Amino acid sequence: MAKKNYYVVKSGHKLGIFNNWPECQASVKGYKGALYKGFETKAEALEWQNDEGASRDLRDSSNAGMLTSSIGNVDFEVYTDGSYLNGKYSYGYAFVKDGEVVLESFGIGEDLEAASMRNVAGEIAAVLHAVEKAKSLNSRIRIYHDYSGISLWVTGDWQAKNKFTQAYVEFMRAHHGLYEFKKVAGHSGDQFNDYVDRLAKKALGIKTK
């Protein structure tokens, strides 16, 4: 993840752009409803500082952390993954209970424009479908993912720069309380991570061992 060199505080004890974290932290610590974000370049910081709509889209890091922090006991562990081949992306997810897959799904993404994000579009689709399924089951889930952006976009640590990632963040924040995230290493021999990787590839007709 790129180093944050500038911090913008829109709501806090002191407003403005800071070039170090301690000053930013001092400006927001203990301030209810603080709104701030870090950026790699000053140009990005200025753009966000002057964007009135950003206040609706991004929370302060403490609030964002609440959206992705532990929700306690979960009903299912859910593994998600995406794949890409020849202009098409796919997704796969599996609900796991007591070490067994109890529900699974996979398919091909329908948004041709989103396919420009290649397998990342599939990663996003897998999580969105999984959360929708959890909602229909009135269940709480722990989402295991191997692509960092899946959780970091939601927390605001990564900036959602296009309409697809922005829509993803909006959806996930609207459904906070249904899920928590857990990062796993891709292709590391994790049984269920490998399982959903095969599901996503299966949707595209990619043969796996």
From TrEMBL:
The keyword Hydrolase applies. SUPFAM superfamilies: L9 N-domain-like (SSF55658), Ribonuclease H-like (SSF53098). This is ribonuclease H. Residues 72-205 form the RNase H type-1 domain. The keyword Metal-binding applies. It comes from Desulfosporosinus nitroreducens. Keywords: Endonuclease, Hydrolase, Metal-binding, Nuclease. It catalyses: Endonucleolytic cleavage to 5'-phosphomonoester. Belongs to the RNase H family. PROSITE patterns: RNASE_H_1. Its EC number is 3.1.26.4. It comes from the Bacteria. PANTHER family: RIBONUCLEASE H1 (PTHR10642).
